[in-house]
User: What shape does this take?
Amino acid sequence: MADSMQTFLNKHVEKIILAAAIVVFVVALTVFVAMRGTIFGDQDQVRLQVEGLVKGLVEARKAPGLDKALAPDERAALGIDEAPPTGEEYVKQRDTLPPAWDAKVDKWAEPKAERPQRDIVHPEVPAIVGVADLQVFQGRGTTAEPVANAVFKLEKPALADIVWAGVVGRLDLTAQRDAYIKAHDPLDPNGILISNLEVQRCELKPDGTWSEWNTVKPALASAVAAKWPKMPANPRDKATVGAWYLACKTLQADIRRMPLHALVGKDKQGQTADMLTDAVSHVEQPEMKRPPETPPPAAAAPAAGAPPAPETPPPAPAAPATGKESPWATALPTAPPQPTTSAQPVEAAAAPKHVIATLWAYDTTVEPGKTYQYRMRASLISPIYSVGDVRDDKARWTLEFTGPWSAPSREVTIPNLVEFFFVGMAGGDKVNLELHRWILSQWVIQPSVQSNLGAPVAYLKRQKLTIPGAKAAAGSKESMTAEAINVDLNPQVLLVDVLRAFPYVPEGATRVIRTNVLIFADARGQLDRRTDWDDKNASRAAKVEREGGPAALPPPGTKGPTPQAPKPPKPRPTTPRK
Assistant: This one.
């Protein structure tokens, strides 16, 4: 054994010495490269030293007798016959193997593990349902709240007359829930919260065309306006956003049904949203989960002697939480489910109730005698706010999403504050008019005012008025009376002409009568006509209704009397609105 070892060493001694020299060189070169940044600051000097070391190694490999000790394949594997690299080439190649060595390395890649297939839902921006079925109404009232656009103000006590147009729409919350489910799963369990209502109107112009749509700020009671939710300036400030969210949740009923200024009296012929939809005390929500699937048909009873049916497997365990629940999950705690016992009968799941929200708003910036159309849209609090896997970063930090504008409502005409009746001729070119003025929720009537043709009607009357909603003294049933007030009874019309003894068949009559016809221009410049026959009957009916004093408001939470349907307006030529 010792002789064999000695023979092997004698035969390969040169190879062993060469291998040891290469190892020592590689170690020295590695230490040199690692410390080159510290020892040598000049890169040119480093390259010169590397070239010197490499040249010395090549000279060592060409020592006498070394060519005979190595076979050709061994010389190629060691790279002895290759030209020495320059300093720049060495820097580029120091992290790679020579091509001859790299060709011998096995190309092995770790096989990819097969992952189970599963559906990954990325929340998208949900579609917002539009408001539909718009209804409009109008009215006049008196309030004790300070309002900027009052048509009449009394200083002591502080009272203001206002006119309004109202709009009521419907929002399908069940359809909105389905839109949430389509865009986001799991669904926000806290329901659908409305953060804002927007209203726009257009006005009928004297030439029969419509103006452009203009945004209207809905009127609000002062108590509600003081605590109205204010949109956070920074949507990424979660503390401020959380306070805004809770304010929207608290005022959800007021946001959906914007309350009008508190009234102390109103016109009996006017309407409010309470008359159309009743008052609201809570906000209903649809069932915030997927609608139940149609159950399969019941299996027929097994025939006699048939083998028993296999037992139904137990239900699969509930999926674990994904960590992508709504950020509002802690804001609206829900009641825990009631445990069921085996003794309780299992009832079939009923279909979820279809829930529709009623939305309303008032516009108190209207002017008496003008005609308007309205449209409405709603904004909903985002159900994907700050959710981590939302693709669109802008949508992720959006606080609310706004729906489309509704279709335009029908026309609504605001009643005038002064009404006039043509009650006959006063001799010559003078006509006799009866004037009615609505002020402080009551009617001031002047039975006879003579006016000349071709001139506007103007009349001022000084009269004491009853203060609505106030008592003269404790225990007294009579209302307080204000000091004498100058009441303006200008109907804003221009008398044009009179057709005397015109043949006319009154409505419901069968014979022709002779009556006077007054032709006048209204505040919009439109020509119209009236007969003294019809106006005398209308004035008598109006006095019977209006001389009873101011109209009392219905008790809270109840419907007021349904007013008579107004007569359809006369058709007027209009051009299509853009």
The longest helix spans residues 2-34. The chain has three domains: 12-102, 132-287+352-413, 418-546. DSSP finds 14 helices and 18 strands in the chain. The radius of gyration is 46 Å.
